[in-house]
Amino acid sequence: MREVSGATLGEVLDAYFRDNERARGYVLDEQGKIRQHMVVFIDGELVRDRDGLSDPVESKSIIDVIQALSGGNE
Amino acid sequence: MSDRCYLATRKGLFTVDRRVSKWSISRATFIGDNVTLVMHDSRNGNLFAALNHGHFGIKVHRSTNGGETWDEITAPQYPPMPEGYVPKPLPFFNKPLDWALKLIWGLAPGGADQPGLIWCGTMPGGLFKSENNGASWELNRPLWDHPKREEWGPNGAEWPGIHSICVDPRDSRHVSIGVSTGGVWITKDAGKSWTQTGGGMRAEYYPAEQQGDPNVQDVHCLVQCAANPEVFWVQHHNGIFRSTDGARSWTEIKDVKPSVFGFPVAVHPHDPNTAWFVPSTKDEKRCPTDGRVVVNRTRDGGKTFETLRQGLPQEYAYDLVYRHGLDVDESGNRLVFGSTTGSVWISENGGDSWQTVSSNLPPVYAVRFVKP
């Protein structure tokens, strides 16, 4: 777990990925949208804006980035 | 002991017979068709095969002569949506669920006192019942209309589904089912009412505060011990769980080598402490650890495991075994499993050693012994 700042999901993820550019492409596609089989929760709530990453984030929010059950390779 | 098993594969249904001590394929049916499941009904010998045609939908075929000939019978059908009803969007996918059959994922005969009764679990989450050997099917409304059913999530496929159906040998009205993703549900009145269980399970693919929610548990396979029906085993998306109180509460079995990930589990019909698993490395690495195919067996209720490998490939093997890809016969001595790379192995000594039936079959979806 790492602490990063930002007022929206996009800002927070951007701050996180700035120090780990390679991780960006594992979570977001080349258009900056959440990959189909990744799920992101803010304080336990599923993110609503998966394309624009505009969901608001509080200063103490916890963001979980998790692989969805749906994406596993067989 | 069972001398025959059936293999449902991506490109046909195969009969495997024991001749002296060697097992070999004796018949191939539905060649080229995607046979996703097979069921043998020991009450009358009927065989059922579920087919998933790419173009033409899901079909069911039945044989009443041991697989010599087959007839297509009615497939389960979802009813029309009630007027004005707006389905909740599916978790994650955020789109409404079709009321249309996507896959037959579980088939189980009813009890000995319920001739003709067959349970059928499907995607997108409906449980169907036939009371006439599959001639017609009815959606179980109490479960389908349960508000928590609408919260079931997807799995490897886009839709939730019911894959495991355990009819209690003490009371046929008592049925326990496994749902991916939707935990474990029990009826004690033949489906009139349902209770969700699953306390003690843990879903590590959710944020911490939701990991214990029974409705998000991705049960890969649920089995019940015939001799001690209070004991259930579950292979779960992130581990192995066991219940000794009739599936009401669950204990996680940890620190299993080489891994706790996998799809199938089989329980010994006479010994609730003995169960078999086919481990895969982990969710994001669905192949045997180090390229070695192994079967894990516990004989002490999960306290310890033996990793069985005699007769199984021990280098550069990447076989994955699906939830219906492992079975044990009524004696508990004979086991069969089949893999996504078309290999099938049979053991006659509880898994101590294995013989190869084939290494060249289509991807195997389900294996089932013929049981008396």
- State the CATH class of chain B: Mainly Beta
For the largest interface, the chains and their residue counts are: A-B, 15 and 23 residues
Uncertain segments of chain B: none
Give the averaged pLDDT of chain A, no decimals. 91
Q: What name goes with the CATH superfamily of chain B?
A: YVTN repeat-like/Quinoprotein amine dehydrogenase
Level of helix content of chain A? 10-25%
Overall SS class of chain A? alpha+beta
Beta-strand fraction estimate of chain A: 15-25%
Which runs of chain A of at least 5 residues are low in confidence (pLDDT < 50)? none
Largest sheet of chain A, in brief, is: 3 strands, antiparallel
Strand content of chain B: 35-45%
CATH topology of chain B: Methylamine Dehydrogenase, Chain H
> Largest beta sheet of chain A: what is the strand line-up?
2-1-3
Quaternary structure type = heterodimer
Compute the separation of the termini of chain B in Å.
9 Å
